[in-house]
Amino acid sequence: MTTQAGNPQRPADSGGVLDLSGDWQGSLSAGAVPLRLVFHLRPAPDGGWKGTMDSPDQNARGIPIGAVALRGHALELAFPAFAAGFEGTVADDGKSVAGNWKQAGSTFPLTLVKSAGPVAEPRRPQRPRPPYPYVVRELKFPSVQPGVVLAGTVCVPRGKGPFPAVVMVTGSGPQDRDEFLLGHRPFHVIADHLARHGIASLRYDDRGVGASGGDPTLATSDDFALDAEGAVRALRALPDIRKDRVGILGHSEGGLIGPLAARRTKDIAFLVLLAGPGLPGKDVMVSQMAALLKAAGNNDADVAKSVVLQRTLVDIAAGPGSVDDRVRRMGEAADRFAEGLNETERVAFANARKGLDAQLRTLASPWFRRFLNHDPRPVLAGLRVPVLALHGSLDLQVDANSNAAAIREALRKGRIRGSRVEILPGLNHLFQTCRTGLPAEYGTIEETFAPVALARIVAFVREATGTKKTVNGARSKH
């Protein structure tokens, strides 16, 4: 085989020079939710190749590829910024690459296919697009915790105010103000719907995301509750917002954060909890694993084995000791668990074990430890504002039946008037109409947020604030 002018990265074969120029896409199954990856490769001035990567389902674009090496048909892409890489073999026709994505000690199969044209965005018919029939403003505001400044978007109905308003709080993990996931922007959809029905809103980027400052790595739900309280203060300070009618809408972990904030301040008039936990975090995590494994087709015996390991790991993660000490003890527990597996299971476990320590370190982080030990029920029972708690019947991440029952009982003990707890049939954790509830469905569903859930939210906020929407979008009293 000869090469061009001594260039080791552009070899020729019987069909000529391999051409990497263009867009290459594939789907990475490295967790519960498959992620599309798109690599943009083009010739470099030195005769080699350079490029960037997009992860459109995570709203991440233009990630630099640190190095591109093509030797024969062997392709290597390096991403030193997050210690990851791709290794594969280019097909003879130059139209696909079969290989593996490697990161944090784990290896995941990934096949790339050369695109004939631009990579199409998934269809999301509910995504709001301008011009909007309401006012949109950008807002920066301080958290109650000193030194943290957050940024968000305010949507205010047109017409005569002041208007009732909602602060939106995202679920776990660093998320932007739209709670972007797999092409979906649920918070944007909710904000748009609220504004069209006479209700203002503020949605904001989490710490360290987008235009918001702050370091999320050492923060816990208690810190995020301070951020939510700061958002409520900022919204109440606006002249077109009715100060005594501002509430919090929280999704998933946001449904835990909202009540924490409401226990701290009397400025919060109501709460909307979307798939919020009603049980301790340890119970939620174990239930989540069992539900996901069972829905994915695993038999009861295998599910039971995994539940035993999960319960052991979360008990250690939630217990005493330094992060390093708990990671070590969790690793030892996992290795003891592997001793009871059959040969096929041990091989699979050994492959997964390479990347397990990174996952265990996340499990032992300050945020996760606080989540595992938190019991929402006493906080919910101590609330003095009306609460709407919605769950999807096919939610596999926060079980609808057990968590809704716990929330209902806690609110009953607190004798909170005007509260409602409802399980909406056929909806998943994101409140999409679905078939199975598995996270793998999230990106394949065109619907972002079920209209029935949007209607429940609007009806509750109107009732909780004593307002209704006129045909012009203005607020009027009952």
Topology:
Layout: E1 12-13, E2 16-17, E3 22-28, E4 35-43, E5 49-55, E6 60-64, E7 67-71, E8 74-79, E9 84-90, E10 96-103, E11 106-114, E12 134-142, E13 149-157, E14 163-169, H1 186-196, E15 200-204, H2 221-236, E16 241-251, H3 254-264, E17 271-274, H4 281-295, H5 300-318, H6 323-338, H7 343-353, H8 356-363, H9 366-373, H10 376-381, E18 387-392, H11 400-414, E19 420-424, H12 451-465, E20 467-469, E21 475-477
Parallel strand pairs: 14-15, 14-16, 16-17, 17-18, 18-19
Antiparallel strand pairs: 1-2, 3-4, 3-11, 4-5, 5-6, 7-8, 8-9, 9-10, 10-11, 12-13, 13-15, 20-21
Explain the overall architecture:
- This protein has 478 residues and is α+β, with helices and mostly antiparallel strands.
- A hairpin with a 6-residue loop joins strand 12 and strand 13.
- Helix content is 32%, strand content 27%.
- Mean pLDDT is 90; it is low at 1-16 and 470-478.
- The longest helix is centred in the middle third of the chain and has 19 residues, at 300-318.
- It is globular, with a radius of gyration of 25 Å.
- It has a 9-stranded antiparallel beta sheet. Strands 12-13-15-14-16-17-18-19 form an 8-stranded mixed beta sheet, with helices on both faces.
- The N and C termini lie far apart (83 Å).
- The protein has 3 domains: 4-114, Beta Barrel (Lipocalin); 134-280 and 374-477, Rossmann fold; 282-370, no CATH class.
CATH superfamily of the largest domain: Alpha/Beta hydrolase fold, catalytic domain
Domains, number: 3
User: Any idea what the radius of gyration is?
Assistant: 25 Å
Q: Can you give the helix content as a percent range?
A: 25-40%
State the distance separating the first and last CA atoms. Answer: 83 Å
The pLDDT mean sits at: 90
Q: How would you classify the helix and strand content by structural class? A: alpha+beta
